[in-house]
Amino acid sequence: MKIELTRQKVHNDFAKKVELISGQNLFACYQCGNCTAGCPVAFAMEIGPHEAIRYTLLGLEEEVLGANTFWLCASCLQCTSRCPKGIDIARVMDALRMVALRKKERQDHIQIAEFPEGFLERVPQIAFISGFRKFLS
Amino acid sequence: MDYLYFPGCTLYTKAKNFDQTARECSRRLGFELKELPNWTCCGATFPLATDNIMALLPPTRILANAKEQGSTLTTLCAICFNVIKRTNHLIQEDAEKRDKINNFIEKNYQGDLRVVHYLEILKQDIGFPRLKEKIRKDLGGLKVAAYYGCMLLRPVEEMEFDDKERPTIFEEFLESLGAKAVDFPLKIECCGSFQSVGSPEVATECAYRILHSAIKNGAEVVVSTCPMCTFNIDHKQLEIREKRLDFKSIPVLYFTQILGIAMGVDVQMLGFEQNFVNPEPLLRKKGLL
pTM here? Predict the structure, then answer.
């Protein structure tokens, strides 16, 4: 992926917004990659959680929000529990989700109408309730 | 001593066997699970966005109502436990949010309730040595993989459940029933959780890895504490079998079901009809039913 950095991007308010919603200091991150190494769904992510943090710090809003990273986070808190700098990375992932879902287009990540037949009967309601909270605007 | 009990929504539908066996085992152990009146859904996720106070209202209301009835609240579902315990912690620590929430729900809850998981009751209040004395059927070295999942353990500062990387409570519990606890590296790994709604294939892969790791280390049965995990590692074995041709099914039980077996609870009461992989053939072969 080609990434273009501009002074304007680096100084936009994206990182500030993510820091505000997550309550975390992203600048504490020194890119050790422990979060990505322990993440159980990193195999399916386009960029790892540590990269998502770096991108966010560089103001690359489009690149971060366009990646599937934070949508795949299951909030299992393995990254949070292993971060040597004490960053609650799961909160950062949730903040990215919030930034995406709170945009004025209000695009949902999942479409309930498109669930396959029998899906609603099969899956337990806790999966739906947490899923809807994470994926619907 | 009786405990106030918050079952949570899934234990009333997809995981009746979890609820039923827990109640029966409690009776046999000499305490009652007193169901909290008028309980509501806990919200099923602890809100990680710091500005999402709305999602804290249901668990706080549950806690406030429980406080009016007693001093200890217990749950079985690991997700409910996580949400309620973390909310309790937040109410204790964050005065500003506490006031805001209390004003909104018209309660005055200060976070002074003891929130415990059923396993903690067995360990702290009953004690595993005493539990061992109450066992009517020794599990005869059945090789059981204790799958913790994430919700009981993390974040460790708030859950205060067990060590975050090498927990032992579940193994101690299984050993006291006469089972052989199988250690496997993915016992604290995530099952994919609600991704079974968002990205089902990713969740299937997570579940496969966990089961594969347990089987490779010699497990005959996997035991879980969470209806969400159980859906992913038990019911989704259907999808795993389609994707991984070498995969052999393994029964997944709730920890209260295995406790029930050891306490001699009648097989009709164990609710195996809700387990996707039927554990009966294995248990009969081992002479446990």
Answer: 0.97
